[in-house]
Write a structure and sequence with these properties.
The complex is a heterodimer of chains A (295) and B (291).
Chain A: E1 4-15, E2 23-35, E3 41-45, H1 52-59, E4 67-72, E5 75-76, H2 82-91, E6 92-95, H3 110-119, H4 126-139, H5 144-147, H6 157-171, E7 175-179, H7 187-204, E8 207-212, H8 215-221, E9 224-229, E10 232-238, H9 239-244, H10 249-256, H11 273-282
Chain B: H1 2-13, H2 15-32, H3 34-42, H4 74-110, H5 112-127, H6 130-140, H7 146-172, H8 176-183, H9 188-224, H10 235-245, H11 254-281
Helix pairs in contact in B: 2-4, 2-11, 3-4, 4-5, 4-7, 4-9, 4-10, 5-7, 6-7, 7-9, 8-9, 9-10, 9-11, 10-11
The chains are: A alpha/beta (295), B mainly alpha (291).
Amino acid sequence: MKSELELRGVQQRFHARGVADGYVTAVDDVSFSLLASPPQIVSLVGQSGSGKSTIARNVLGLQKPTAGSVLYGGKDIFKLSRSEYDAYRRDVQPVFQDPYAIFNPFYRVDRVLWKAVKKFKLADTRAKGLQLIEESLQAVRLEPENVLGRYPHQLSGGQRQRIMLARVHMLRPSFIIADEPVSMLDAQVRRHFLDILLDFQREHGMTTLFITHDLSTVYYLGGEVMVITKGQIVERGPVATVMHEPTHPYTKLLLDSIPSPDPDQRWTTRIQVDELERLDDNTPVDATKPEAPII
Amino acid sequence: MRLLTAVLRTIRNSRRLATGLIVLAVLILVALFSPLIVKAIGGGQDPIELAAYDKWQVPSPQHLLGTDQFGRDVLAMVVKALSVSLQIGAIAGVISTVAGVIVAFVAGYKGGWIDNVLSTFTGILLVIPTFPLLIALSAYAKNVSLFQVGVMISIFSWPFAAKTIRSQVLSLRTRPYVDLARVSKARDIEIIVTELLPNLLPFIGVGFASSALGAIFGLVGLEIIGLGPGGVIDLGQIIFNAIGTGALTLGAWPMFVVPIALLTLLFAALNMVNIGLEEVYNPRLRGVAGE
């Protein structure tokens, strides 16, 4: 299982009306690579509209980039042979942002897990499949009898998101693409979720691309971090370095935006909107505008 | 099984839906058993045969709704005509729903130029005035069968279904569970059938009901002006006869009133089903207090 996931000069444009040249560039010339061994956690940080979710969709093969390529084991993921494609699908799996929308409301939650068992031929009998599902649910600290046979609306957000982790646990991919997986969970469930991700890295050697807008979770996870703004990666390096010695003004701005739970360290200064405006001036303006300045 | 309980729960929660379905079920049962009912009315002979009885009898215990200008029993005719009207509804409803669903799913799911072509085509069909064209077509086609009329009507009624379902497909196909199915190696057809279709059943039901209704009224409209298919009596033709012979002035009011009442009932029932389904699946239309 020596594989590598690489983005080479990926650019994603979308048609848009009312923009000067008829399109917006969500992702602009992004290159990075993820290694399966040693397992690592790479965080991709950026605000809403910075293009981070589009990168996730590119990596997962849900969206074909307009330029550049996503390579799995050195081959373009949109030009894989049948068996290579199967390997890629098995090896690169997502955890999505919205734990409510990820389940088809029509079916019981078990179906997501059984689908994984059947599509990836994880077990040849029903009994073995059930055993596998129960093991995986226990690995994400869910009681199988509490979740199996339920409908999505009967479970909490945290439970639903952990079922997605159980799915990942069953498939044992080399790469987890986690697109804002904790942004809709409350604080202690969030911590719990991150711990499971860290366990997966340690015990099963899974590399995670962790996409978030929240620097405090990045800090908790450690590893490498990339900062993306307006579709471009502006800073990358080990978390400690980037957090303590940010070089790009956008990173500094992000760091200033973390609220601290310490009552003695309330926010006293305000981030001015014109700081964001000034950022606009010294970067090329192909990228999407931030949806809202962080204040 | 799960589908059945879900359907039952849905029906129990909406009084409108339940009423509509019950009325509809009664009408369908009458239509299904129409041969038996007609036989029972005739008591050995065919009550719809020409000159079976004296003509222009007023309602009496022997002929609950009287007889028409040819001496046919009006009740038997109405029962028979109801089954014909429902048949045309079923034929046109099924054809246009199937066509609409296929076009909607292909256009909505595939997107791009396929969507453009199909949407333009549906748009063109939508703006063609249907009824004048139907009149022209039936005037040309002599001795058309019921099925052919059904096909003719559905040619113009599928675009409505296609349009509404397509917009739903557009919104559903970007749902994360579709993405999840894709990364789980599900093929397009599998995603359409297992992920999207179940969630669109109410819309498909509404599409079916409205095209069936459109077809029934289309045929009634053709019959009233004397352009229906030959050899069958539907509710419109009874009304046509009533108008043509001045039945109202001869005291044979049931010939005029009963078909219209039945059509109104059918219309009300199907619309109640439509509204009820929409209410159930669009929570914003539900009462504030909920269930």
